[in-house]
Amino acid sequence: MIKYEDLDPEAPIGVFDSGVGGLTVVREIIRQIPNESLLYFGDTARVPYGTKSKDTVLRYTRQIVRFLESQKVKAIVVACNTVSAVALDEIEKEVNVPIIGVVKPGVKAASQATRNGKIGVIATKATIESNIYATYLKKIDPNAEVLGKACPLFVPLVENGLLEDPVTDEIAARYLSELMDRGIDTLVLGCTHYPLIRSTIARTVGEGVTLVNPAYETALELKALLSQYGIESKERPRLGSNKHRFYVSDDAQGFEVFANSVLKYGILSAQVINIENY
């Protein structure tokens, strides 16, 4: 087992995403591991990642990881399916702290949830084309039938706050009808934006389909990882302390409004940084 003796258990956990979707992972971490402090970066100037090339995603990811390491984080959560799919394997070799993505926890939960072996995955174009969910699922169950569907319009709909809107209902019906026709009984929300329209997706697919939220599964895996390496925070934060910090590459005000609607507990501020400097 890798040892991380030099890591400070009271240091923050770095979490990053291409935009605001990773806040669903932040929300689950806060619920599951309330002692931990978080440092979040949302690349709001360059969202979405799902339409970018692998080389571009890898370059963006290296910049963000360098920023997080400059902030002395004790672990990194890649709260972005696209990065988890196309860049995580390379980034893992370059960092000196534990790092996890959102794909493997989602895969594990989906393999346990399915009854008929037909698993749908909705995600960005890059994640679907990487075939990473199918690759990992078939390692667990070679007989699994994995049906992927790119849903590129979901991210801008979420980013623009159209969480409960007839347009979102219509787009969801168009995207998901093909998967329903194929008889899936489990659906992985393979982009961290998608849990924010979970109710729309659930209405569209019906009660017979189990939805898997990798954000929740990732929070549980992070909790186990911190315990494994003995770097979980032992101190309860003081009431009112500003234990979570938020950074973006653009539009801090818009991010704050959206973050407060997702996290509920309220964030004090978000700071814009020039990520290209890292």
Q: What key attributes describe this structure?
A:
alpha/beta; four-stranded parallel beta sheet; 278 residues; Rossmann fold; 12 helices; six-stranded parallel beta sheet
Could you please describe the fold and organization of this structure?
It is a single chain. The protein is α/β, with parallel strands linked by helices and 278 residues long. It has two domains: 13-101 and 216-277, Rossmann fold; 103-214, Rossmann fold, CATH 3.40.50.1860. It has helices spanning 23-32, 54-70, 81-86, 88-92, 103-113, 125-130, 132-140, 154-159, 166-181, 198-205, 214-228, 252-263, and strands spanning 13-17, 38-42, 75-78, 99-100, 118-123, 145-150, 186-189, 210-212, 245-248, 270-272. The strands form two sheets. It has a six-stranded parallel sheet, sandwiched between helices. It has a four-stranded parallel sheet with strand order 6-5-7-8, with helices on both faces. α5 (103-113) crosses α7 and α9 crosses α10 (198-205). The longest helix is centred in the first third of the chain and has 17 residues, at 54-70. The radius of gyration is 18 Å and the shape is globular. 47% of the residues are buried. The mean pLDDT is 91.
